[in-house]
Amino acid sequence: MDLSRKKTVFILVGAILALLFVSSVALLIARLCIPRVTYEVRLSDELYDLYVVDSESESLPFAFVREGDIREEEGSFLGTVRLPFASIRVEENVTLLPQQAGSNEICYPLSENFLLPCVPSDFSEKGVTVLSPELELSFCQGLDIPEGWRALPVEGAYASEDDYGLTLTKSAVVTIFVQNEKMQAALEDWCERHFLFTGYQELLGSTESEGPMFIASVGDIMVARGAQEMMMGSDDGLEKVFGTTLPLLQNSDFTIGNLEGVVTESWSNATKTYTFKFKKQVLSYLLQAGFDYLMQTNNHCYDYGESGFKDTLKAFAEYGVPSSGIGYNAEEAKKFYHTSIKGVPLSVISCGAFPVEQSGFDGKKTATATEDRAGILWKSDELLDAVKKEKDAGYFVIVNVHGGEEYRFVPSKSQREFYEALCSSGADIVFGSHPHVLQPTEWYGDSLIVYSMGNFVFNGMEEMYGATDSELVRVGLLGNKIAYVEQYPAKLSGATVTLAD
Fold it and tell me: CA-to-CA distance for 100 and 107, rounded, in angstroms?
């Protein structure tokens, strides 16, 4: 190769190398002047942990970043620039304070719950609410009610009712910083797929929205001595007997009463101090008064012997009166009554636990159901085991006990031990009767014990101290949890009972 051709090749190679060098420098300058940009959507830690973990494999034109992980960029010579495209925060809003969204914000409701004004339960103060300047008041969200506290209505409305005024809505609020239609559309699509709304009905495990499920209970009902004649004798007979308590009985979802006496036409009464019997037609009036369950496991169930007890069983079946703890044999008497109200599965049982009467009547020996004798369920360890099985099966369990000592204002030791054992086994509420006077209402853990509600309809008790003082107890459930406990003091006057002033 001659010298001129070599020179040409060297010049050409040099030119190519120079061109490559200039191009590299130009690319480097361009890279420095126009850095690579990554757009971020910054989420609160709560939202990131709940929703983004399962979305990491999705192909999106932006990256999700947890707010708590954001650090100040130190910057590097060839670093990527991270720009916030949008942020998503959690916002909680009470219905009394309407939420205001900005023009560059999109709101996605996540859940709806309610706020409950709650107070420590002081059951020594009778009444629905006890409001005073010294009252300790706290607001609880949903079912997070502290043990030993109860909720209060708000202006007469209860949580989950349509007109309840303290609803808490949690939302994911998206704020857009950069106007980019493609990225905004992708973000909105992601939000609509991941942010699913949960209403309070779902939190309660029910689609019902009429409000709490209220269980009401009253004390002893003895409709002889003129009460049944008054009840059945005129169109307003129910109002004459039950007075101002009637709306509470009828408007509660499940109302329990203890029917002290048998439904029979027999005249073969037992040898006892007092024996009570009623006309079977009165049962339809008690159902109209609002009673959904009548207890029979009391010390008057055998006032007319086994035949009178069987007459009562037949009458209950004829008029469709729900009950349990009674039967033509022991197997029937052990069966719980089951129903479901507003999505709450109820299991109800009644039993006898009353002491031997002065007349010598021993309910355990005489009236307890056996394989070949109709009768009632008596307290036992077997009953405690049965209560546990009902609770384990998912029921809200109510136990009605006819026990304790008559005309005693405090529970006896054996009474307390048995009622507390029922709660330890799974009973959510224990309603007591038999003492004929009021006894305390107390919490036992998360369970409620009403030791005695006194007499409710019981003519002829004026001479006995405290025997005309009564109460109607209403327990409001949200889901399967006790939220409201209301005590309505009442007073007996002859065959009539009315709310106390």
Answer: 10
